[in-house]
Amino acid sequence: MNSTMEQIKDFLIVGGPVVWILLGFSMIALTIFIVKLWQLALLRAESRKAINAALDAWRAHDINNALAILSDKRPVEGVVAYCMEALQSTKREASVVREEAERRAMNTLHDLRSFLRPLEIIGSLSPLLGLLGTVLGMITAFQQMEGAGAQVDPSVLSGGIWQALLTTAVGIAVAIPVIAMHAWLERKVERVAHNMNDAVTQVFTSKEGERLAAVAAREVLNAA
């Protein structure tokens, strides 16, 4: 254990500031990933059980039960509940309700996508930083070789090269899991967006939704 820690410490010292920056990137990426996992788990954003039950009640014209099943604290359910309440009130046209639902959905998806951009940036920059460290290390190694003249020690040169390549290895080691985490979280958000669009569309295209939309349209025309 002590030897492993000493080896890691030596790597950090040999790698220089680039390795420390990459280590900081990895800690930031891990923190973001844990926070997003906690957010998705808390909101149960991908759960369809309550939504499907509410849609069944909605199609059966049991609007009160449908609304009671849904929770405003969950992103998809909150948008679906708004659509049902707005259509039930028959005070707004269906097109206006849909536009407001789209606005709420976009805000929800924006919140779910928060901090995903930094993950993407870290995944893109890490290999480049590692390559930069390698280039700088190679420059230093060849400068030492030039200064040694004819008395070049191959072991010194090879030691400088592996030290330079260390930063590239660290950069790739950081980038691979970060890119995988970003892709996985992005896929989660895409599934939430799909579930939201599918559920809202079912609210509007069901017979109950069409009936309430028609009533709302008539009331608007009568008021005009």
Task: Indicate the topology.
Layout: H1 2-15, H2 17-43, H3 49-59, H4 63-69, H5 75-89, H6 94-112, H7 116-148, H8 154-205, H9 207-223
Question: Approximately how much beta-strand content do the residues carry?
Answer: under 5%
Order of helices and strands: HHHHHHHHH
* Count of spatially separate domains: 1
What is the mean pLDDT? 80
Going by helix content, strand content and strand pairing, the class is mainly alpha
What share of residues is helical?
over 70%
Number of helices: 9
Number of strands: 0
Rough shape?
rod-shaped
Question: How would you summarize this macromolecular structure in one to three sentences?
Answer:
It comes from Marinomonas aquimarina. Helices cover 87% and strands 0% of the residues. By secondary structure, it is mostly helical.
Describe the protein in words.
Pfam families: MotA_ExbB. Residues 86-197 form the MotA/TolQ/ExbB proton channel domain. Its main location: membrane. It is built from 9 helices and no strands. 87% of the residues lie in helices and 0% in strands. It has one domain (18-223). Helix 6 packs antiparallel against helix 8 (154-205). It is mostly helical. The radius of gyration is 28 Å and the shape is rod-shaped.
Descriptive labels:
9 helices, membrane, 224 residues, mainly alpha, cell membrane, 87% helix
